[in-house]
Amino acid sequence: MFSEHKWQIELVVWVAIVALVTVLLVRQCGRHSSDDGCSASMADSLQLVDLPQCQRIDYLGFRVYYDSATHLPRCVLYELTADETLGTVPRAKGFERDDSVSGCAEPSAFRGSGMSRGHMAPAGDMKWDAKAMQQSFLMPNICPQDNSLNEGGWNRVEEKAREWARRDGALVIAVGPVIEPGLERTPAGVAIPKYFYKVLLAHRVWPRRAVAFIYPNAPSNGSLRNYVVSVDSVERLTGIDFFAVLPDDQEESIERSSALASFLHVSW
Fold first, then answer.
1. How many helices (H) and strands (E) does the chain have?
2. Which residue of 17, 118, 127, 141 has the fewest CB atoms within a 10 Å radius of its CB?
3. For 159-202, what is each residue's pLDDT tens digit?
């Protein structure tokens, strides 16, 4: 009798454990009845934007929409997973031109402008593969960027993105310069952006959440809160529609809010 009662208790405990694990997996993956937030096809679709005037370049670790008129990427998109943030590939040693890209700038094209060569998809996010690392140093991924911004506030956002990707399983990241008429040019003719944007979507959690930043191309080393904006604001500045594959109600809710607090203070 005691043995049977013990068996029943153990069964109840195991059922409870299985139920708890299932709930946690569902929350982590952002699943609900009509949408699988963890699917590879969803992650890939979130990296698509409508920029027909740009060249689309699919590198191993990221996708570039390149504007040959300004010699800048309009948008760089990629998924950063938790596992990828743990890569150990050493940093590549030099910048290179991509001869397959029309209007691609030379590595020396920023000389005389006082600007650094700033990565859009960071080298630090490509440590999971040697080819991905090398391709992050190709010029379609590079913009003229104030050195203090590059090493300061911009670097801080990159580090926070890796932290959030490890916590949330993955992020879809959209990043680039704000391209507008009348930009100054380097002596070699590359446009010098006045601003940069970065949009981050935690697509494997539920409810999904996004945060966006606009940084001036100048020393910008203050709190993240000084530069946070809504995704809608970035869309208005850039003319790019992000995350259009999401259901309309999700997209509208995600894009009109600034979810920095939820990124900084999530508890499960």
1. 8, 9
2. 17
3. 999 999 999 999 999 999 999 999 999 999 999 999 999 999 99
